[in-house]
Amino acid sequence: xxxxxxxxxxxxxxxxxxxxxxxxxxxxWKKEFLSTEAGRKQWATYEHDSRFTLTITVSRDNSQGAxxxxxxxxxSGRLTAANITLGSRIDEGYPNPIYFPVMSSLTxxxxxxVIDGNILAATKIAHEFGHLTHTAAAxxxxxxxxxxxxLDYNKxxxxxxxxxxxxxxVDLAQRMGGTPVEIxxxxxxxxxxxxxxxxxxxxxDESVRCMLFSRIKQRVDLxxxxxxxxxxxxxxxxxxxxxxxxx
Length: 247
Description:
By secondary structure, the chain is α/β, with parallel strands linked by helices. The chain has eight helices and four strands; from the N terminus they run E-H-H-E-E-E-H-H-H-H-H-H.
């Protein structure tokens, strides 16, 4: 069963294609996301863009996760359409800290009672909007080349005894601008900085924000040290972060 209010075909903007059974929870997640300046700014960017169509839907597939894809570019290389698919239970579950140092830091621990399921869901939405923003600014030709060659790289990697020194793999990595893992983590960390920006705006209690940002820093230092500056730029927007170890 589809949404109670049928979609109106429009050119550009945001189209919310939400199954009726998920409408209430989706509206709660959306309200939480839009309760912050960061969320409202990201939403408005695409809501008022007549040359770009963002479709948002909710699916039971990958129920605790979310994906952004189905990208479409015009002949000039401008991104014209994309889909964000939210899992039906994104208010539950925490991803691996290796590639998700921000979202994984929301795992219940200590006095984190203020962070409920809707905040977790909104953080995941912010992460997906981060993917969208980064992709819109990326070189469409390189982005497409990377997506194509990563498949070739992984296939060869699995068939050559996992020898990363294979000259064919080295050549593919040079053409892509990195190995598939490096490209993937770079994209995920753009999503994570967007999630961190949402949390910075949402957590107005400095003690709670500091506790969370300290936890994020520990995970960035452990798993994403090469991207420290990317996260530091978000942390430095808060006057309290120097006391949280972000310097």
